[in-house]
Structures are given as structure tokens and as C-alpha cells.
């Protein structure tokens, strides 16, 4: 069995909880030959830095399972010069012993999993990316809550024989819908109070969604790199922000193929034994970002963009809309990689399509509540967009890695 040959000091299996942690010091080249030197159990999390300085060295490697406070632990240890790695929780969960499990066993198991060299290490985002991820997820929860309340209200009306048209708005800003519901039948006092309560909850959920959406739009307007992404067809503030939040540092992907695989837009396959199977793009990668890129690809396919023409030709050959949309989403992901890496062509002018996008983002940001002028914001956005460059979507373009050039020895 080959272990992790890059290990210099000890491996410290670290099982963290919100209030306490357990650490197991594991020494050895492989999991089979590893020896557990000592174990610290139920140490208060508030003493993490002081404990690490006393009992560990800079050559030790902390290995912990991805969890609620794992990134906090990594950053706290990095502040005192300790190296910590986060291992993927899905893989670590499969190693859990069903017959006997406690914090000590978990800490040893985590340490040996790292020694085996097969555990996947999770990228630890920087603080700015972490903030964006938190904002992205809270907005997604608000969207989900809005949909739940809208469906609950429609379901209640349907149970009482009231069917609304498909595109009827149920927001508080559309009082005619509420009036039509009131006149649809004779409601009892209790029933109407329930309906008004559902409208109230829906309004609160919609207000929260709009609040987080406006903050996201302001973040995009303030960041030149995120704003540059909206120049791509099908991309507006939500997709641009989600790219910055989920991808973070694009330099961790050596080429666009790795970014495509991270998002999950590469098709799954199984080529084992006599059988061979090729599947879809679901079940792996970042589903949250992939869904947004697929929505953008659907919008591109309905447009007159050159990439849409390429997608329609692919649709004519393959006869599958889903396949064509996935292929366009993959091309869009490749373009995002090139743009974020700085491989651009000059943007000469702001066309009507891009001007319309900028106007919608400014409207979504609700800048009038902050006392900001729309015209000045639009001019600043134009200067930012024309001050840098943009990647031109070229459908036939394929990524060809450049040959490595050997550096002369010193």
C-alpha cells in the first residue's frame, strides 16, 4: 500500500465540533504502519490556538473533515503558522464504522485517510469568497421560501375550487389578484384570515428575496471582474455573482476542462469490462452553479447570438434540446475561464444589448435608496467595461494546452 509520500511531520486527525475538538497524533508512512502517539479528547474550541502552539509544530499537518466550522479552524491554525487541510465529507462519511464510533475513533480515521493518499482535499475559500458564498446561499433560500409560499397559496385556493391563471401574480404589488380571489367564492371569516396570512408571508419572503438580490447587484457593480462577466451573452448579475462566489480563485484550475469538470458539465461515463455507458451531466459537480449556467444557455439558444446558431446546428444533428443546452453551457464555462484568466480581446463599444443589461442591474440594485445617481453609475459601469477587455465566444474554438518550455538551469 502506497501512502502519502509528501508527509514530513506528524499527521493530526482532527474531529471538530462547535464547542470542542478531538485530535489524534498519527505517525507513519502508511495507514497500516501508522501508530497513534497520543490523543486529546474534548478540548474546548476556544483554546484551539493556545493548544496548537503548545502541542504541535509547523511541520505537523492537520487533517479534518469538511463541516460547519472547518474553514474557521483552518484559518485559525494558519494564523499561528500551522498547516491544515480539509478532506471531503462525502468520502470520509463512507469510512465511518457502523458498529463503534466516537470522536477518538473519528480523529484516528481522518488521520489515516489522509495517510492513504486517496482522500480528496477541499479548497478553502478566502474571506471575500466566503462572504459571497454566504450571500449567495441566503438568497437561494429566500427564493426557495418565496416559491414555497406561492405554491402553498395556490394549493389552498385549488383545494377550495379556485383556480388561477398560470401567469397570475400573487405579489402584494398586484392587488387585482387578491380582489379576484375574494370575489371567486364565498369565504368564511377564518378562511379569509388564512388567505391574508399567506399573502403576508409571501410578501415578507418576496421582500427578503429582493433585499438580497439588490445587495448582489451592488456587489457586481462594485467589482470590475464580476461586472466584466455580464458582457457574455446570457449572463447578468446573478450568474456573474455566483461565478465569483462558487469559483473564487480561477487560477486553481489549470485549464478550462478542469473548470468544466468542477461545475459538472462534463458527461458521466462508465467503461468497465465489456459494457460501456455514457450518461448525462447530473449527479456530479457544483449543482448550484451548473443550474444557473444551464438557464443562461437556454436564454442563449433563444437568441440570435453566434453561439445560438452553433447550438441550433448541433440540435439539428443530435435531435436533443438538453444536449444542445448542455453543450452551450459548457462553451459558456470555457469563456468564463478565459475571461477570468485575463485572456481577452478589446471591447470597443457598448452596444444596446449590454446597455440594457447595465440598466437592469442598476434598477435591481435599488441605488435610489442609497442616494446614488443612475446616470453617474451607468457612466462608471461603462468606463469599467471599456477599461478592460472581454473574451469573444467562438463556438468552434477548442482548448489546446501549450507545450511546456523547459527553463534553463541556474
Summarize the model shown.
The chain is of the alpha+beta class and 410 residues long. It has helices at residues 48-55, 70-78, 89-94, 103-116, 127-159, 175-184, 189-222, 224-229, 237-246, 256-263, 287-301, 306-318, 321-340, 352-364, 374-387, and strands at residues 11-16, 20-27, 35-44, 61-65, 83-87, 121-122, 269-270, 277-278, 345-346, 389-390.
User: Pairing-aware structural class of the strands and helices?
Assistant: alpha+beta
Radius of gyration equals 26 Å
Terminal residue distance: 37 Å
Uncertain spans: 399-410
Helix segment count?
15
Main beta sheet strand tally, sense and closure: 6 strands, mixed
How many separate domains? Answer: 3
Provide mean pLDDT, rounded: 83
How many strands in all? 10
Q: How is the largest sheet built, in terms of strand order?
A: 3-2-1-4-5-6
Mass-distribution shape: globular
